[in-house]
């Protein structure tokens, strides 16, 4: 469904070794390598987690967590942007045989990813810019961003080089039907998702 990841030379992985050390020292933090740079994201707030759970429900209801595909949180994918690059989307829809696409360091070939989804936190710029390029170059067919900062839901499709040919932001009040290439029809209620992700006084 997507292009294969860049060929990886065997040998030392200094950035991956440092990323793994950071994860061990900072439980709950997400550590990624994109464009040869280590990105560290703090643990998400409660509203982030609620929005993510709410987002899973329409995918499950559509039967996409079943024999042909799986809905998974925090699964890593290799990126073609560097020899040690990988990203960890908040949520991914992958082919059911994804286990056969393990590359290394608990990361999987982007060929088995149908969709990646990010719910923004304090590092929203990475989701809106850096990861657009990374996921497009990995040829992930659909990238969805829940932009809590600007109260928009972005749907990016048709990866072309280092960007997506189709990038549509959606506002509260809209119902968004995702591409049927996912394997089933999934419709997202923008207002409900953004409301679930709105940080509360305790977050």
From TrEMBL:
Putative restriction endonuclease domain boundaries: 22-190
Signal peptide segment: none
Alphabetical list of CDD domains matching this protein: DUF820-like
InterPro entries: Nuclease_put_TT1808 (IPR012296), Restrct_endonuc-II-like (IPR011335), Uma2 (IPR008538)
Protein name as annotated: Integral membrane protein
């Amino acid at each position: 469904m997507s292009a294969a990841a860049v060929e990886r030379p065997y040998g030392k992985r200094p950035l991956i070794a440092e990323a793994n050390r950071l994860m061990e020292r900072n439980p709950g933090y997400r550590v990624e390598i994109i464009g040869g740079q280590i990105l560290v994201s703090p643990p998400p707030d409660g509203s982030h987690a609620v929005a993510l759970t709410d987002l899973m429900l329409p995918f499950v209801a559509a039967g996409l967590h079943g024999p042909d595909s799986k809905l998974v949180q925090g699964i890593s994918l290799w990126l073609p942007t560097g020899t040690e690059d990988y990203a960890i989307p908040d949520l991914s829809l992958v082919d059911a045989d994804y286990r056969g696409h393990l590359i290394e360091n608990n990361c999987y070939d982007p060929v088995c990813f149908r969709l990646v989804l990010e719910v923004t936190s304090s590092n929203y710029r990475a989701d809106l810019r850096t990861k657009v390029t990374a996921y497009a170059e990995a040829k992930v067919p659909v990238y969805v961003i829940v932009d809590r900062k600007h109260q928009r839901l972005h749907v990016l499709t048709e990866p072309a080089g280092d960007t997506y040919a189709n990038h549509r932001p959606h506002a509260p009040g809209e119902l968004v039907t995702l591409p049927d290439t996912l394997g089933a029809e999934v419709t997202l209620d923008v207002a409900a998702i953004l409301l679930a992700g709105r940080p509360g006084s305790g977050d």
